[in-house]
Structures are given as structure tokens and as C-alpha cells.
Design a protein that fits this description.
Rossmann fold, 7-stranded mixed sheet, globular, single chain
């Protein structure tokens, strides 16, 4: 993991510009938040293929559906609380039901939105999006992976949801690294515990891995960047090979990464899973780094959870 940091929302905007250069059918829609979601990077390069729909998220999603039905590849971007929440009905009935080729970016997800507070901290979007037939769900952990996912979504014929963060996080992967959209990425072969993490919590888990190693505790960290489809094989393998299973996410523990993993374990290899995340409550206003600690999803919390008897 590198010292360099970048917010995945920034990476998303840069990736839009790159794919826009390669494919003229790509159009980008935003809902009066292009500066925050970073879709304005695409706008500056291709103003004739960018559409600001104003504060009208349902309209944005329905318009994207119409564009997709005419052969365009729309990327619709706004805060996750508005994308997955306010426009849920339109995503369900206008995009997923007809299985249209629309890509949705839910930016500013989780408590790491920070000072914007509970009303803007979307903690239910993974749960909402994974429950929709035809929808693929991605939660990248760093700059490199975000850019790869934007490229990969173009190879998927149908709806996709990508979750990006406001807070800058460590760059984990090397430039140009390739991934398998149906597989996770494992760091280490430790058998004392497995920490499954997604999004911004992956870098926190990797920091915890380093700290635990100093104490003679060896864990493996698994970056679950694809939440639907989920890598069932790595979950079962970890359950068989490690003493403790932990999931950590900047999302409600109900319906998020932990629930997805638990569903796999129940069916494939019953084992105890400790869920770290937001425990069925709303977030609150505060500095993003402090909120990671308050809600017990940072490096120190992971270290303590692994050490618990």
C-alpha cells in the first residue's frame, strides 16, 4: 500500500474522461453535483455529451434509461443517498426491469461523507442495489481499482452500480493492474483471522494487518470490491483455513457486505462471522477520520476485534 492518497470519486471522474475518449456513445448525466461527483471532468472534455439534470434525480435516471434504449451508454452520477434512495423506483422499474445498459455512480457514500451528516450519509445503498435483479454492484477500494471498474462496466451489458467515497484513501494497487470482476483480491495467507473489507475500509484493514503482524498475529485481508456477483469461493476457503472471520464496511451491517458473506456461509460452510460496520443507526456530523473511529471501522478497531477472545 502506498502513502499516496486519492478519493475514489476523483478517480471515477478521471476514468469517465478516459472511456469517453474511446467510446463516443458514452454520455454522462448528473444532478447538480458534477463538481462533487467529479463528473465535471468529463463535462470539460465533452460538453455536448454531458447533461446536468438539475436537482431532479428521478428525472435523471429515467432520462438515462431513455438514452440507453436508443443505444447510448449513460453514466448517471449523484450522491449515493439520492441515487440509490430518491431514485430507487426509477432504477427498479425503468432500468433493472427492462435490463437497460445504464451505469449509476453513488458518490459520497458512508459516514466518511463527514460534516454533511446523517441525511447525506448513505448507509443502505448496497442493500438496496444488490436486491435488484440484473444489477451488478461494485465498491472499489482505491484509485486504480475504480478506474478499472469503470472500464469493466462497459463490458457488462446491463445495469451497474459503483459506490465511491468523498474521503481520500491510500492507493493500494499499481497503475494498470487488472482484476477479475467475479473474484476478490487477497492480501496475505495468515490463518489467525480473515478480514473481509470493501471500499474505504480495505486500506484500514491493510493498516491493521501490519500492526497485528508486529504482535505476531497473522491475518489475511480480502478486498471484496465486487459485491454482486460475490466471490463465494474465497469466502468458503477463508472459513476453512482461518480461525476467525470478520467483515468491515462503511455501511449498515444489515444488508451490506457482512450480510452477503453470511448468506454464503449459511449455504456453503456454516461459520461464525463478526460484522463491523454501522450498527442499524444513522450517521452523524463530524470529521470523516473521527467518524471512522467513532463507528469502530478504522484500523484500531479492526486490530482490537481480531485480538478479542
Amino acid at each position: 500500500m502506498k502513502d499516496e492518497k486519492k478519493a475514489t470519486r476523483q478517480s471515477y471522474g478521471e476514468a469517465l474522461r478516459e472511456v469517453g475518449m474511446k467510446n463516443k456513445d458514452i454520455v454522462v448525466l448528473d444532478a447538480d453535483l458534477a463538481g462533487a461527483t467529479k463528473s465535471d471532468i468529463f463535462k470539460k472534455e465533452f460538453p455536448d455529451r454531458f447533461f446536468d439534470m438539475g436537482i431532479s434525480e428521478q428525472d435523471m435516471i429515467t432520462t438515462a434509461a431513455g438514452m440507453a434504449s436508443c443505444g447510448k451508454i449513460p453514466f448517471a452520477s449523484t450522491f449515493a443517498v439520492f441515487a440509490a434512495g430518491r431514485a430507487y423506483d426509477q432504477i427498479r422499474n425503468s432500468i433493472c426491469y427492462p435490463n437497460l445498459n445504464v451505469k449509476i455512480c453513488g458518490s459520497h457514500a458512508g459516514v466518511t461523507v463527514g460534516e454533511d451528516g446523517a441525511t447525506h450519509q448513505m448507509l443502505e445503498d448496497i442493500n438496496l442495489m444488490k436486491g435488484l435483479p440484473n444489477m451488478k454492484v461494485f465498491s472499489p477500494s482505491d484509485d486504480v481499482q475504480t478506474k478499472w471498474i469503470v472500464e469493466e462496466m462497459l463490458n457488462i451489458q446491463g445495469p451497474c452500480y459503483i459506490r465511491t467515497a468523498r474521503l481520500a484513501s491510500n492507493i493500494i494497487y499499481d497503475d494498470g493492474e487488472k482484476f477479475d470482476g467475479k473474484k476478490s483480491v487477497q492480501f496475505g495467507e495468515g490463518t489467525d483471522a480473515t478480514v473481509f473489507a470493501t471500499g474505504i475500509c480495505v486500506s484500514e484493514a491493510l493498516k491493521a494487518q501490519v500492526e497485528l503482524e508486529k504482535a505476531g498475529i497473522n491475518i489475511r485481508v480480502i478486498d471484496m470490491f465486487s459485491l454482486k456477483p460475490i466471490d463465494e469461493e474465497v469466502i468458503v476457503k477463508a472459513a476453512k483455513e482461518t480461525k476467525k472471520l470478520i467483515s468491515v464496511e462503511d455501511h449498515n451491517i444489515i444488508g451490506g457486505l457482512g450480510s452477503i458473506i453470511a448468506d454464503v456461509l449459511v449455504q456453503k460452510y456454516p461459520a461464525k462471522l463478526l460484522k463491523m460496520g454501522i450498527h442499524d443507526r444513522f450517521g452523524e456530523s463530524g470529521k470523516a477520520i473521527e467518524l471512522l473511529g467513532k463507528f469502530q471501522i478504522d484500523c484500531n478497531a479492526i486490530v482490537n476485534k481480531v485480538k478479542e477472545e
